[in-house]
Amino acid sequence: MPVDPPGGGGDASGSTPGCTRIVIPADPLAVREALRALFDTLLLRALPADERGTAEIVLAEALNNIVEHAYACDGGKIELTLQLHQSELVCQIEDQGLAMPRDALPSGELTAISGAAALPEGGFGWHLIRALSRDLHYRRVGGRNQLSFRLDVGQSRR
Length: 158
Hints:
This protein is of the alpha+beta class. It has a single domain, classed as Heat Shock Protein 90 (2-Layer Sandwich). 28% of the residues lie in helices and 27% in strands. Strands 1-2-3-4-6-5 form a six-stranded antiparallel beta sheet, covered by helices on one side.
């Protein structure tokens, strides 16, 4: 995966101390490979296992939603910037796909389900994202979706 510092141009990815930026194709396999590479970086290897797991769930849900919904008809690119501060991982994701319906985040509310056979195949992503993150914000600016959130990571070891 190519590398360039945050704020740099091109289709590259980058790392500076405490910060990692990647640009990936909006493709399910590319997302899977990017997550694998991300969680092998020094920045995220320093997180305790349970907090790494939480970060991986939230990032996978957000990135896969972009692939499936924002870029449902066309390919595109997803830009992800992660900054590790003392007790939080700040995540910013941008894409040029379709806007969120009504330019707002889904509620993430779960509906009552009776019986295991009635469990839906999907629909849990936004509930997980909302439950596991904080300071979740979405806005559409200049044809770009901008999603940001924070994850508590305790006293990470860098």
